[in-house]
Amino acid sequence: MDIAKKIEEAENTALKDCDNLPVPLNTCWTFWIDKTERGASAAEYEASLQKVYTVSTVQTFWSVYNNIPDVQELQKKYSYHLMRGDRKPLWEDESNRKGGSWHFKSNKKDTPKVWKELLLAAIGEQFVDYVCKGDDVCGISVTVRDKDDIIQVWNSDATAVPNDIVRKIYKLLPGVQFTAEFYRAHYTHRSYEAEKELFTHPVYMVLRFSAIFIVCTKHNCEILLY
């Protein structure tokens, strides 16, 4: 998919915006795009990643967001990512190895709204009060599928189960209902290729059913009320 022209326009617009009292973000964020192929190795996946732009101000964020194809225009299997700093949207990335992500299945009619609102919440640091001490939200992803699209919210520490993240997301998106949602540590994926980290309390997966969370570790599962 050729988006070079739109990216160039975004860069030019960003330069102009920087002359008009730019509003800095708390940290830089980087847009990425890729096409996911089933069975691809970590190296193959990394090779498919294309860096779009790193934004450090509100103005540059909107310049990029408004000049790349809308998420509804993406072809099947393509993904957009917005990652904190210069980290890549790779499980094996040094900055991500101890983390995980919430996965939400989104109805296609809701995907553009969900994607936009979560991006704004991330760059606006609206998740700070909804994660455990020492943890942070470090990425937002959207992947186009045949039926429901996949939204991911990445966090840095999989030992700190971020249940409150779900509450915050539903506050941000009144009226939106996801068809499925679960949390999973990156290193538990079958295709994870880096050395597996040793956690004191390793969380493998968190499943949510209505008002109940089921937290699964290597040794047992615990039921938590939502």
TrEMBL record:
Pfam families: IF4E. One of its GO terms (cellular component) is eukaryotic translation initiation factor 4F complex. GO terms for molecular function: RNA 7-methylguanosine cap binding; translation initiation factor activity. The keyword Protein biosynthesis applies. InterPro entries: TIF_eIF4e-like (IPR023398), TIF_eIF_4E (IPR001040). GO terms for biological process: regulation of translation. Keywords: Initiation factor, Protein biosynthesis, RNA-binding, Translation regulation. It comes from the Eukaryota. Belongs to the eukaryotic initiation factor 4E family. This is Eukaryotic translation initiation factor 4E type 3. It comes from Oedothorax gibbosus.
